Amino acid sequence: MRTRSSIAPVTTSPSPLILPLLLLAAAFPATEAAAAAMQISPLLSTCVDACRLGCREIRAVESKRRGGASSPDDDGESSSVGLDVSLKDVSDIKSALTEADRRAQAAIVGALRSEWGPDLTIVGEEDGDDDVEAILSEMKFDPLDRTMFFDDELGEGGADIDPSDIIVYVDPLDGTREFVEGRLANCQSLVGIAVGGEAVAGAVGLPFPAGDLSTEATIVYGLADFGTGVVGEPLTRGPFPLDHNIDGVKYPRPHIASGDSTAEVMVAAREAAVNRFKGSSVLYGGAGNKILGAALGEVSASVQHKYGGPWDVCAPEAIIRGFGGRITTLFGEEMRYGPNYPPRFNKRGYVATPSGSDVDHDALVAALLAQPAVQQYRKEADEARAKEE
User: Fold this and answer.
1) CA separation (Å) from 237 to 64, 224, 227, 240?
2) By the 8 A CB rule, do 214 and 196 touch?
3) Which of 199, 237, 291, 376 could be bridged to 316 by S-S, CB 3.0 to 4.6 A?
4) Which pTM was predicted?
């Protein structure tokens, strides 16, 4: 059974996210061809529903690995099966690709394509993978729910937006390395909506809210700068540190989340943040999970020097901004999306801070930019981008 609730809205609305959706849509020019137009409200609703399908596929693969049900609809038992893992880059464990990635991509992208047709541009992390296309060819899709944010009094789901201004970014399994290693609480399924080059809405699916299969998935959805909500299992995280970071002696606050990268720029960034704000660095896996940790107030900031692509940050940006937080590149620039996505923009990383954080966002960015290693990293990132422009 799915439940829906409003959490930490930034603005007050007569019905969760309805009025903000209308206000957002009104900010974009209406299209002349109404038949081809889209509205944010039903599109976000279907993205939330598709994210749920992605989580279901991820959970099914995990159940199969543990010797449980072999599919989301199979109550029978199956023998224990190992996880098939390949590496996109043989030198980088973070490039791991599994059956869960492929099946979740097929479920999310296939459902959205079936619902909206070719007019909706969808960019998925695993696009072009032959195995994904093979799985897609075997799947059948029921209509997605367009009505989660529909209000009878308001009628339609917002002003018309030209589909050519919209890109949906899909990271079917953010935190694949963590999935392979069994650190399931770090895994997410991300479906973000960018309009006019800006992240405006998204869904972040938590297939394992309790770190295992004991509870159903939680889907956190958000509308940038307006509000957030939850579908499915109630959200139990935030605004306090995770249990393994709760010891204030071992991990004095404020907490700065980052990954385990030993790159010189990240070593310098962690040291600069802790020295400036007198807190401690805590380990988080997955780009989306780091940003969600900041959005929920589990940490005072999240810092990362690079990420895979726009699919990693589009949905999380909408969520953290929906909570009233902020995200920029490592160098303090606004995040960017769309067909004019700058070359190597993902190498500019991100800094994310929650609303009311005891770590000032601009002060943190300034502390990072004062580090020679960060300055050198920025120089290299700028030069690499210039070569491709």
Assistant:
1) 27, 20, 17, 8
2) no
3) 291
4) 0.87
